[in-house]
Amino acid sequence: MFAVQRGTPMATQPMATGRPATIHDIAALCGVAASTVSRALANPERVNIRTRERIQAAAVELNYTPNSQAKALSSGKTGAVGVLVPDITNPFYFDLIRGTQLQLKAAGYTQLLVDTEESDEVEASTLEQLRKSADGVIVAASRLNDEALAAAASRMPMVTVNRDVDGVPAVLIDTPSAMPQALDHLISLGHTSVAYVSGPAVSQSSARRWTALSEAAEERGVDVRRLGPFAPKTQSGAAAADAAVHSGVTACIVFNDLIAIGMLQRLRERGLRVPEDMSIVGCDDIFGADFCNPPLTTMSSPIEQAGRVAVSMLLAQLNPLAGGGNRNRSVMPTHLTVRGSTGPVTST
Asked: Which of 22, 61, 160, 176 could form a disulfide with 212 if both were Cys (CB 3.0 to 4.6 A apart)?
């Protein structure tokens, strides 16, 4: 048994068992009930000042750290928000994660970041686990089907990014609106045969971009064909470049910058010049897109802002009495950024 000596500082000593201290250890040290310790730490004003000071001093002595799950049980809140991304190594998510982190920190929440590995199974199991350890979740580019995602959103507060499902609040990065811009840019350079290098088969963003591009191509009388699907990684660029060369097109609009950068590398290996022999347009304007050889023409979006908006929408669900509106949909604008990877047709 530890003794508390009045008027002298208590020596900090580790628990003899090596386990984390609990409120029962503090109660034993102070000679009070565990319920009194709980009240002193959670609602100090409900305990007289002398008892409160003894308990607080004992908590410091024992290096007591509140258990987040126990706190959640008593308050119904964990102070944490889950952020799920399909691939943490994809630079597209760097700015998104930064945006959510900064906005959550400002609101007093901890961010729980999870890489779901492009797997619907990992995503589903993670969402189930987070029901106990997080107050809400932000899910980027979900790989779940609409029914599974809507069911998950019915069980806990959720905001999706780049996934549009009825009844689920979402932040949509409006890349489809930039597809006609990219096509008009290529047409102005003399391109009449263009390929869309598509992303994952389950990607709603890829499907929306293809729909917007094919509709714009039909209006303009331009031949556009779809290649893929391809995994959203640089390594996919080699196969995508080979498919583009085989198709006979002179320009490609690519699902994301990672695949586009891989295509630049492969085309160079094959002795083809960009943009003289093939023009390439990427999407996302990730860090490094302007450092490529040649610098990549791409579709740019305020990705960090999208993360901040997603957090604001989630906080409105978590704290409805705090105001902030009740948006169910927020659309982030996108525009074409022209660099050196696109140019006039010089060979046939």
From this structure: 176
98-153 pLDDT, tens digit each:
999 999 999 889 999 999 999 999 999 999 999 989 999 999 999 999 999 999 99
Residues 233 and 131 in one domain: no
The Cα–Cα gap between 261 and 236 comes to: 10
In this structure, what CATH number is given to the domain that contains residue 247?
A: 3.40.50.2300
In a domain, 2, yes or no: yes
pLDDT at 68: 54
Q: What is the pLDDT of residue 260?
A: 98
Is 89 in the same domain as 57? no
Q: Half-sphere exposure of residue 24, counting CA atoms within 13 Å on the CB side?
A: 2
pLDDT tens across 25-55, in order? 899 999 999 888 887 876 677 788 888 888 8
The token pair at 327 is 């948006």
- CB-based contacts of 89-92 (< 8 A; 24+ apart in sequence): 90/232, 90/233, 90/256, 90/258, 90/286, 91/257, 91/258, 91/286, 91/287, 91/288, 92/256, 92/257, 92/258, 92/284, 92/286, 92/303
Domain that holds residue 243: 175-301
What pTM was computed for the model? 0.75
Q: End-to-end CA distance of the chain, in Å?
A: 88
209 touches 179 (CB < 8 A): yes
Which residues are 159's β-sheet partners?
Answer: 138
* Cα 310 from Cα 302, distance rounded (Å): 12
Q: Are 186 and 323 within one domain? A: no
Q: How far is 148 from 146, CA to CA, in rounded Å?
A: 6
The bridge status of strand 170-173 relative to strand 329-332 is parallel
Listed ranges 38-47, 84-93, 322-331; the one with the highest mean pLDDT: 84-93
